[in-house]
Design a protein that fits this description.
By secondary structure, the chain is mostly helical. It is built from five helices and no strands. Among the domains are: 46 residues, no CATH class; 54 residues, no CATH class. 43% of the residues lie in helices and 0% in strands.
Length: 169
């Protein structure tokens, strides 16, 4: 109801509603809202209390200036050189990406399967020759090398250090 009154008083909002409604509110006092009684008869209509709802502020009034809207920036048209540089950068990335992918796959595999490092978990047996069984010694040596993380190619470098006496010569 207040909105319709504001529309009518401002000639279809052609006048500033803040000024017109302020002048009207200064000259007239709004009645207190009516309170409905708890008991209503069946034949009487219920009356809705009259509530005053203030209207939102209107911009461009002395007390409420309109917000400043930043100007639209007109961007310059890109030139042909910019497009050529962009194409060159995309071409360079296209050539590098497969190598990057291969490196990532290699790194992932290296992380998943780290190389075994040599250590000293088991004592490597020495071979002296004589009545010592060479097959049993070779089996013991191989098991100790595997436990210590010594690779097959490196076993050939390590074995001379464990040949003693006549076996060494």
């Amino acid at each position: 109801m207040d909105l319709i009154n504001a529309y009518n008083l401002t000639n279809g909002f052609q006048q500033d509603p803040n000024e017109v409604l302020y002048q009207v509110s200064e000259t007239t006092t709004s009645p207190e809202p009516e309170v409905l009684s708890d008991t209503t008869s069946e034949n009487s209509e219920e009356e809705i209390p009259h509530l005053h709802i203030p209207l939102p502020p209107i911009y461009n009034t002395p007390n409420n200036p309109a917000p400043v809207i930043p100007p639209v920036i007109n961007m310059a048209q890109p030139n042909q050189q910019d497009f050529q540089q962009l194409r060159a950068a995309i071409a360079a990335l296209t050539q590098v990406l497969p190598n990057t992918n291969n490196a990532l796959v290699g790194n992932t595999q290296a992380i998943a399967n780290p190389p075994r490092r040599e250590g000293k978990v088991a004592e490597l047996p020495s071979f002296y020759g004589g009545n010592q069984d060479p097959v049993a010694w070779l089996e013991d040596f191989t098991r100790a090398c595997n436990a210590n993380g010594i690779a097959n190619g490196r076993k050939l470098e390590v074995v001379p250090a464990y040949l003693k006496g006549a076996a060494s010569t």
